[in-house]
Design goal:
Blueprint: E1 6-9, E2 13-14, H1 21-39, E3 44-51, H2 55-64, H3 68-85, E4 92-95, H4 99-114, E5 118-128, E6 133-135, E7 155-164, H5 170-179, E8 184-185, H6 187-196, E9 204-205, E10 207-209, E11 218-219, E12 222-227, H7 229-233, H8 236-239, H9 247-253, E13 258-262, H10 266-280, E14 287-291, E15 294-296, H11 311-318, H12 320-330, E16 337-339, H13 341-370, H14 383-404, H15 408-429, H16 431-437, H17 440-461, H18 466-475, H19 485-488, H20 531-535, E17 539-549, E18 557-562, E19 567-572, H21 580-583, E20 587-591, E21 597-599, E22 602-604, E23 607-608, E24 610-613, E25 616-619, E26 631-632
Parallel strand pairs: 1-3, 1-13, 2-3, 3-4, 8-14, 13-14, 15-16
Antiparallel strand pairs: 5-6, 5-7, 7-9, 10-12, 11-12, 17-18, 17-20, 17-26, 18-19, 20-23, 21-22, 24-25
Helix pairs in contact: 2-3, 11-12, 13-15, 13-17, 14-15, 14-17, 15-17, 16-17, 17-18
The chain binds 5'-O-[(L-methionyl)-sulphamoyl]adenosine.
Length: 633
């Protein structure tokens, strides 16, 4: 992509329902790309918005007993709130009911009609009501909708409508796609579109009689009709930047650098939209990028399946940066990815709490102990330092490459590798030993190098985790404001003498069994497990022998428990619900074969069970006397 500007869009979301993780993903991805380009100093325009017309919205309004506009007004707020919460930095938010959009759509329709690109004809064919799509005889051999996600019976329809001469652009489109490999990405999606174009391309019905669908933009040349939802929605990408109203602004941003879409709307974006633009005489977007699907475990996500992941819940429980990080790190762009809370916690603990969080805490502590809380003046670097510096600088290049290939997940991996290498470097150079030995010169060199890596890693992670990375930068005594890519490709920007601020752990470890803040509600329905899976978990009764608070952690209690044939210590996040003394003598239920872990530096071997709802937490116990160590099944 040329660097003169970057214009990125998300699909505009239907206002028929509340936003879910799929919507959150596309918008976070666009935000990460936008922030990354701003980091590189590229003028950036990031557009998102809502698709407010059409049958889906009309039906949702009817169900709720409100007008479609009211439905749109109520639902749009949910999207806007979510984007605020996810720290989305869009430059514009377009609603298709806004006058600026309606005017652009009508101007386009009028122009295409006047030039014979749109014509009226009698339509006689098949129609799928839920998909709002027309099909020919050939498309519906079994009388059912050919959309693999639908398959419902189609209806015979006979009515006059308006058509866009899409078919005439078929050969042009095939040639354009073949000559511009970056146009549809990833490659296998380009082949999918080319496959679709092997069949004759029909003209596109672009209208609906108001008698059937009233909620839409009226055709300027026939008030008995509204325009079909795609001819309305796709235009948002140009109406928002001033097509027909502000030519200078339009010139500045069009063509789009990247339309991000989900794989479900590939045909509309790679066939309808390019042919519409061609008929309007406008240049093509540089890239239409279709990402894969978020599954929940192995299953499709859906309201009827009851497994919709609510992004608001995830942010409340784990924080916005960790949520953004997980979505970006876990999905290889283009492929489907699986969301489970276990995978989330695993990755959070491994990448953020352990690798990155520990590195920061170690370096800050050593800077406090060994350098009076300031960035030190480094001495002459040795071979280990030279190697670390080389890796840091090549990581910036790897991130650039990863973004150029639309693989932010690989960029994230490269930064994590750098963080891990720095942890190994510290193990090797042992600054704590240097401090004890009084070898200040080497100590300062080592800490300066580790600090520099943190500065670079924080900058490279900035588009993904802007809030936490700002805290990290502040901790290192760096100036306020976003970093710039040039600085991240240059070694030695940490200023000796700058004051370092100790900060609480950026990503406190999520302990098994200790749900994080507000972790009472399951954000999703877990997949079923087999009996064999269940059998792996050993649940036993235990008697609490002693209990006390863990110093410096207001949620944690440390319990000594009797498991019948052994005594153990466990740490549990129940201090806000139980007084330590009140637990002594109680019989509780614990997962006894859980791998031991250290929680806030305290050994925990096992996990107690507790039920929770809306901020209330109650221990699971047994109904009467039973010896400690009894199996619970
Ligand atoms: N309004 C149309 C788009 C018009 S664009 C000119 C639409 N809206 S939508 O609300 O149904 O959802 C749009 C997008 O949400 C999908 O294309 C995709 O980007 C995202 N996702 C919806 N479910 C998803 C998953 N389960 N996983 C990932 N993204 C998915 O279609």
């Amino acid at each position: 992509m040329p660097d003169s500007k970057f214009y990125v869009t998300t699909p505009i979301y239907y206002v028929n329902d509340r936003p879910h993780i799929g919507h959150a993903y596309t918008t976070i991805l666009a935000d990460v790309l936008a922030r990354y380009h701003r980091l590189r100093g590229v003028p950036t325009m990031f557009l998102t918005g809502t698709d407010e017309h059409g049958q889906k919205v009309q039906q949702a309004a009817e169900r709720g007993g409100i007008s479609p506009q009211e439905q749109a007004d109520r639902t749009v707020v949910r999207f806007q709130e979510l984007w605020r919460k996810l720290e989305i930095t869009h430059d514009d938010f377009i609603r298709t009911t806004e006058p600026r959009h309606v005017a652009a759509v009508q101007a386009i329709l009028q122009d295409l009609y006047a030039r014979g690109e749109i014509y009226r004809a009698e339509y006689d064919g098949w129609y799928c009501v839920p998909c709002e799509r027309f099909f020919t005889e050939r498309d519906v051999p079994a009388g059912r909708c050919p959309n693999p996600d639908c398959g419902r019976p189609v209806e015979r329809i006979r009515e006059a409508n308006y058509f866009f001469r899409m078919g005439r652009y078929q050969q042009w489109l095939i040639a354009y796609i073949q000559e511009h490999p970056a146009f549809i990405q990833p490659d296998f999606r380009r082949n999918e579109t080319l496959g679709f174009l092997r069949k004759p391309l029909n003209d596109l019905c672009i209208s609906r009689p108001k008698s059937r669908l009233a909620w839409g933009i009226e055709l300027p040349f026939d008030p008995a009709y509204v325009t079909y939802v795609w001819f309305d929605a796709l235009v948002n990408y140009i109406s928002a930047i001033g097509y027909h109203s502000d030519p200078a602004r339009f010139q500045q941003w069009w063509p789009a650098s990247c339309h991000l879409i989900g794989k479900d709307i590939l045909t509309t974006h790679t066939v309808y939209w390019p042919t519409m633009l061609k008929a309007m005489g406008l240049p093509m977007p540089e890239t239409i990028f279709a990402h894969g699907w978020w599954l929940v475990g192995e299953t499709k996500m859906g309201k009827s399946l009851g497994n919709v992941v609510n992004p608001m819940d995830m942010v409340d429980r784990y924080g916005v940066d960790a949520f953004r990080y997980f979505l970006m790190a876990e999905m290889a762009l283009g492929q489907d990815a699986s969301f489970t809370e276990e995978a989330f916690v695993r990755r959070y603990n491994a990448d953020l709490a352990n690798d990155l969080g520990n590195l920061l805490q170690r370096v800050l502590k050593m800077l406090a102990d060994g350098c009076a809380g300031c960035i030190p003046e480094p001495g002459t670097p040795g071979p280990e330092e030279a190697q670390l510096q080389g890796t840091a600088l090549s990581t910036a290049a790897a991130v650039e490459q990863a973004f150029a290939n639309m693989r932010p997940d690989l960029g994230i991996n490269a930064v994590l590798d750098l963080v891990r290498e720095t942890n190994r470097y510290l193990e090797l150079r042992q600054p704590w030993t240097l401090l004890k030995r009084g070898d200040r010169r080497t100590l300062h060199t080592v800490l300066y190098h580790a600090g520099e890596v943190l500065r670079i890693a924080a900058g490279l992670f900035h588009p993904v985790m802007p809030g936490k990375m700002q805290t990290l930068r502040r901790a290192l005594g760096l100036p306020e404001g976003a970093p710039d890519m040039g600085g991240l490709k240059t070694w030695g920007r940490l200023r000796p003498g700058a004051r370092v601020e100790p900060v609480p752990p950026l990503f406190p470890r999520i302990a098994a069994g200790n749900n994080p803040p507000d972790g009472e509600k399951q954000a999703m329905t877990s997949p079923t497990i087999t009996y064999a899976d269940f059998e792996k978990i050993q649940l036993r009764t235990a008697r609490v022998l002693a209990a006390e608070r863990v110093a410096g952690a207001d949620r944690l209690l440390k319990l000594q428990i009797d498991l019948g044939n052994e005594r153990r210590q466990i740490v549990a996040g129940i201090a806000q619900h139980y007084e330590a003394a009140a637990l002594v003598g109680r019989t509780i239920v614990v997962v006894s074969n859980l791998q031991p872990a250290r929680i806030r530096g305290v050994e925990s071997h096992g996990m107690l069970l507790a039920a929770s709802s809306d901020g209330v937490l109650k221990l699971v116990t047994v109904d009467g006397e039973i010896p400690p160590g009894s199996a619970v099944k």
